[in-house]
Specification:
- This protein is α+β, with helices and mostly antiparallel strands.
- Helix 1 packs antiparallel against helix 2 and helix 3 runs antiparallel to helix 5.
- The longest helix is centred in the N-terminal third of the chain and has 15 residues.
C-alpha cells in the first residue's frame, strides 16, 4: 500500500494532476514516509575555473557526481557578480539528497570518492565544501500563509 501511495504521490508531484489536488495527500505522505520537506545538500564553492585542466575535467566530474547513489537533484550557478565580501567564487555547484545519512553514504560511495578526487584535481584544492539543510516553498503557499496570518487565522485553521 505504501509503495503504491508513494508512486501516486510522485505522479502528482510531477504535475500530471494539478498541484492543488496533491495538497490533499501531503499529510498522508508525511505520516507514512516521515518526510518533512527538508533535504540536505553539499555546496561546492569553486574559486576559479581558470585552473589548468578545469574545463577538461569538469564533464568527468559531472558524470561521477550525477551517478552518486541517493542524489536527488543537482544545480550549477556561475557567479556573475559579488555584491559584498572578499570571497571571490566563480562557480557554485550543489548536490541534493533526501537525508544527511544519504548524503554521507553518497559521498563515501565509489562515485562520490571519484567526484571528490576530480574536484580536487580540477580546482588545485581551491574549493570550499559545505553541508547544509535545505527547504523551500512555493510563493503561492507563502502568500496564502501570510493572508491567513493577516486574517488572524493560525495554522490549525482557528482564529
Amino acid at each position: 500500500m505504501i509503495v503504491i501511495f508513494s508512486s501516486i504521490y510522485k505522479f502528482l508531484i510531477f504535475g500530471i494532476i494539478p498541484r492543488k489536488i496533491s495538497y490533499l495527500f501531503d499529510f498522508l505522505y508525511i505520516d507514512w514516509q516521515g518526510y518533512n520537506g527538508l533535504m540536505y545538500k553539499l555546496i561546492i564553492l569553486i574559486e576559479s575555473t581558470a585552473t589548468p585542466g578545469f574545463h577538461d575535467i569538469w564533464p568527468r566530474f559531472l558524470h561521477a557526481a550525477e551517478n552518486i547513489p541517493g542524489l536527488r537533484r543537482e544545480s550549477t550557478s556561475r557567479i556573475s557578480q559579488v555584491l559584498f565580501g572578499d570571497a571571490q567564487y566563480s562557480l557554485v555547484h550543489e548536490l541534493y539528497f533526501d537525508t544527511l545519512p544519504a548524503l554521507n553514504a553518497g559521498l563515501a560511495s565509489p562515485y562520490g570518492k571519484e567526484a571528490g578526487k576530480l574536484l580536487q584535481d580540477m580546482t588545485a584544492g581551491r574549493v570550499k565544501l559545505l553541508i547544509a539543510d535545505h527547504s523551500q516553498d512555493e510563493l503561492e503557499n507563502i502568500r496564502r500563509y501570510r493572508k491567513l496570518e493577516k486574517d488572524g487565522i493560525n495554522q490549525t485553521g482557528r482564529a
